[in-house]
Each structure stands twice: as structure tokens, then as C-alpha cells.
Design goal:
Layout lengths: L10 H10 L5 E5 L5 H7 L5 E6 L6 H7 L7 E4 L11 E7 L8 H11 E12 L4 H9 L1 H4 L9 H11 L1 E9 L13 H25 L10 E8 L2
Parallel strand pairs: 1-2, 1-4, 2-3, 4-5
Antiparallel strand pairs: 5-7, 6-7
Helix pairs in contact: 2-3
Amino acid sequence: MEISRAYIPEWLYVIEPFLREYEGKTFMELGCSPGHASALICSRIRFIPYGIDFSPRAHLYKENLAKIGQNDATLIISDIRDFKSNDNFDVVCSFGLIEHFRDPTEMMFHHDRLVRTGGLIIMVIPNFRYIQWLYHFLFDRKDLSIHNTRMMNLNTFTDFSEKMNHEILYLDYVGRFRLWNVDITGTKVIVYGRRMLSRIVREFSNRILSKVFAANSKYYAPWIVYIGKKSN
């Protein structure tokens, strides 16, 4: 999940109060590359940051953490499913990870596996259903195809919390009407036309509709946020 430096995502304001209770403790981001989410959070709250990723861009995690003065961030190059740790972490989180799997419950389980008892689990995913689905189908179909939209609902997380015996601290759709991304593959004419038309749609939604429509609607809110506490 790419995060623009010019835009602070609304999910940050939701998770920040919960994170402050764990300030100074260990903070693990799963699927951490390029590290924008961890850098944004650690620039506001002091943590001992860890990240795990095995993509070719994994090194960007440390580079982006270094930009905020966090030079001692630990990057673990590994598949999350293979990673074993002697010490669990106080906060385990992911931002735009689990929705890339056909069965997201497997990756959700690893959040629970790596967090200590009493620790915090945070999962933030995009909401590509309803109006968001229509936009991505029209203008960003390539990105839409690599997302599991069927799991983008609150039941996915309530079922997970029941299985893991988590205390749900927060679960909801988050944000005002906001659209992003456009597919830049194809001929120059197609790409140009798609970019121009999508820009008009995005500008109208982000500047006008976002101020008119109420926030946190499942029909157009851009995010789903889960915050749980491991009970045992």
C-alpha cells in the first residue's frame, strides 16, 4: 500500500491513540516495503521498529525509516510464513497486505502468531467494493485484479477475532470519499485518455464529494481498519 507523503491517511488518526499506549516498545510491520507506513507512524510515536519482507524492494524499508532519523530499524528478509522469532512483538501490523491472498486468514494468523499476549494487532486494508470497485474497474483494473475484494468486509475480521480470542478495540470502515490510482498500461492514446478522465473523476470525488458525503460508509470509504488485542 503506497502512501503519498502529501496526504496523511485517515486511518492514522484512528490507530494513533491505541499505539500511544505501546510507545517505546517493539513495532513489527509485516510486508513492510517500502516502509512509508512505518516511517509515518514512527515519526509521530517512538517505537523500536522491525519490518519483514522478501520483495526486491525490501531495502526501501530501511531507507525510508532512515529519512526520519530511525537508523536502527531492523529489516528481516524472509517470507512471513517461514519466519520464526524467539521473542514476540508488542505491536504487529500490516497495511495493505492480507487482501492480496486468496485465503487471507493464513496471513492474518501470522499477525497473531508474532504478537505477545496483551499486544496489539493492527490490519489496515483498502476497501475496493461498491463505488470504489466501480472506479477501479473502469480506471485501475490491473491493480483491482490483484486484490481479493470478497474479503473486504467487517465479517472477515470479526470471524478472525473470534477464532483467535482477540478483544476488538476498533473495527470499521474509515475515511471520506476518496479515490486513487490509475492503470498506466496500454497504448499512449488509451493511457492518456484513461488518465485524463480518471483525473476528472478523482478531483470531483476528492474535492467535492468527500466534503458532501458522510465519512466511514462501507459504500465508498477507502479503508477498513481492524485493531485487536491478544488476550491469550
